[in-house]
Amino acid sequence: MNNHLFDAIRAAARPEAVFIETADGRIWTYGDMLAQSARLAGALRKLGVQPGDRVAAQVEKSPEALMLYLASVRAGAVYLPLNTAYTLAELAYFIGDAEPRLVVCTPNTREGLLSITGGTNARVETLDQNGAGSLLELAAKEAADFADEKRGADDLAAILYTSGTTGRSKGAMLTHDNLLSNADTLRDCWRFTSADRLIHALPIFHTHGLFVASNVVLLSGASMYFLPGFSAEEALRLMPVSTVMMGVPTFYVRLIQQDGLTRAATANMRLFVSGSAPLLAETHRRFEDMTGQAILERYGMTETNMNTSNPYDGPRIAGTVGFPLPGVSLRVTDPETGKPLATGETGMIEVKGPNVFKGYWRMPEKTAAEFRADGFFITGDLGMVDAQGYVHIVGRGKDLVISGGYNIYPKEVESEIDQLPGVFESAVIGVPHPDFGEGVTAVVVRVAGAEVDEHAVLDGLKDRLARYKQPKRVIFADALPRNTMGKVQKNILRDTFAGLYAQHEDERTG
Ligand code: MLC
Ligand code: AMP
Q1: Which residue has its alpha carbon closest to ligand 1 atom 45?
Q2: What is the rounded distance in angstroms from the CA atom of residue 489 to the CA atom of residue 217?
Q3: Is the dihedral of CA 185, 370, 84, 437 positive or negative?
Q4: First and final CA of the chain: distance in angstroms?
Q5: Which DSSP category does 371 fall into?
Q6: In whole numbers, what is the pLDDT of the chain averaged over residues?
Q7: Is the distance from CB of 279 to CB of 402 less than 8 angstroms?
Q8: 275 lines ligand 1 (CB under 6 A)
Q9: What is the largest CA-CA distance in the chain?
Q10: From ligand 2's centre to the CA of 298, what distance in Å?
Q11: How many angstroms does the Cα of residue 132 sit away from the middle of ligand 2?
């Protein structure tokens, strides 16, 4: 055993087989993957990256970006992918917290990142195919083989930041075995083989696109169409020459609006997977009516990788996330006492297994608070297990909005809004949205006499928060509803504004 995760990837790689095909027709074989990740790993080592060092990357989706992840694993580093939508203000926190040795970015963010990293020992490099001095140019001078750093099952492979419900984001520390064990399990459960071809339209800075999709393909020696983003037309065009697609519910919501989505168009596809946010039962049924195929819904999170999946063989029940994966223990407990609940009772979902992360980066108290003494991780999701053993997610114990598969923590948005001139206080909620599942919505109370309007609030957030976190609508109220303890009653706000986006859509089409 040398490098726990990469040894397994290498073992599955047949050098002549196709690994990636891009929208512009570039083809990468597994041999190219081995050579390019070796060259990049060599470049990382030359730049002073040592085992255990963090390599942060905010780069556009490309095969080269995926190679950077693999190179980081091979060099024994800890990969820290960052959403391309993050603003400089957001990046400053992640970089300050993670203290990366190397930050890889695009040429247009280089200046900004240099201003953040000034005075630290982080280097800033670009991943630019044409740029002189880019990491790729350094890599081109390196050998096509690389002596992978020794890394064990329990060593860190990645840190992924997930926003905190109360304060700052937390870095979830994922080990080599967290990633490998989960990808192995998913490959087997979903019957991946080298004959598969995946439509990969997800971003590669989150668990879904980076670990679930890419690692499963790598570990089965399969291939993928690597698309820069999701387009329903493009996905439909590729279905006759593909076998699997993984997506967030918004992908499926957009696909069922296409007349071209038929049994014939999907005849070559053997599996459609959905996750990262709840898939409406209505979307599930409509998709099945149009294609004859039942979407397989699964449930996971950054901290735990995948926990449950509907069965490959056997009924895939709409509105459920299926059974705990092999090796994963799942229980439902009373959120107050932690006592396990009976079948059919709703409570807190807790999980334990090789998939569950090692803890939050440099936050031992937060880590301790989210684990039970017997090692179960408290997910913050509310659910129940039915008599057949299917897990149902029925709500969230955490104040969280999921929009198009991205998590938004209201607290973070509220803190930014509350600092704007003329704002007295605010409450941010998720309201049903026809495309994104939930739409981020701000309810704002003005300081007496202030004239701040929707435009001013949105303008004030522009450089502070990633676009997807910014409210789709800002509504003004005289006061926020509160209970006797003084806590804002967000359920009342959610009920009041439940029709906000439905109405908006009608107006648009009407
Ligand atoms: C884009 N926008 C969003 C948004 N994505 N707003 C809210 N929520 C989102 N998810 C903004 C754009 O900036 C744009 O703003 C406007 O909304 C419309 O953009 P669009 O062109 O319609 O969006 P598109 O580029 O098509 O992106 C939508 C999407 C994308 C759903 C394809 O968001 C996406 O790929 N989501 C996947 C997220 C994901 O991978 N999650 C996995 C997390 S891992 P404007 O005003 O500038 O036009 C995890 C664990 C697990 O959760 O279990 O998997
Ligand atoms: P993240 O922190 O981005 O990894 O998001 C994880 C959260 O997404 C989970 O805690 C759930 O709340 C939610 N989630 C993921 N998959 C599903 C699903 N299939 N159904 C409902 N919620 C889901």
Answers
A1: 467
A2: 44
A3: positive
A4: 63
A5: B
A6: 96
A7: no
A8: yes
A9: 70
A10: 9
A11: 41
